[in-house]
Amino acid sequence: MRETEKRALVIGATGGIGGEAAAALLRRGWQVIGLNRDPDAAARRPGARAGIA
After folding, report:
1. In this structure, is residue 53 part of a structural domain?
2. What is the pLDDT of residue 8?
3. CA 4, CA 52: separation in Å to the nearest integer?
4. So what's the pLDDT on residue 44?
5. What's the rounded Cα separation, in Å, for the pair 20 and 27?
6. Does any domain span residue 2?
7. Structural domain total, the chain
């Protein structure tokens, strides 16, 4: 990874606090990788975050 790349793993990225943290990182140009227990359920949730890998 280059020094200029910013990448973050957010645990619970589909929840309240994790979701807000992921959104803030995305707004600041970070690449966000989200971790959750049930990816299928997370994709169906209203307000699922775009841009999270």
Report:
1. no
2. 95
3. 19
4. 72
5. 11
6. no
7. 1
CA distances from residue 49 to 1, 30, 39, 45 in whole angstroms, order as listed: 24, 14, 12, 9
Contacts of 30 (CB under 8 A, 6+ apart): 6, 7, 8
What does the block give as tokens for 23?
Answer: 């959104």
pLDDT tens for 1-52 read: 566 689 999 998 878 898 889 889 999 999 999 887 877 777 776 556 667 7
Amino acid at 32: V
With contact defined as beta carbons under 8 Å apart, do 10 and 18 qualify? yes
Give the range of the structural domain holding residue 39, as residue numbers without chain letter.
Answer: 7-44
- Which helix (DSSP H) or strand (DSSP E) does residue 46 occupy? none
Cα distance between residue 8 and residue 47, in whole Å: 20
Is 52 among the domain residues? no
Residue 49 has what pLDDT? 64
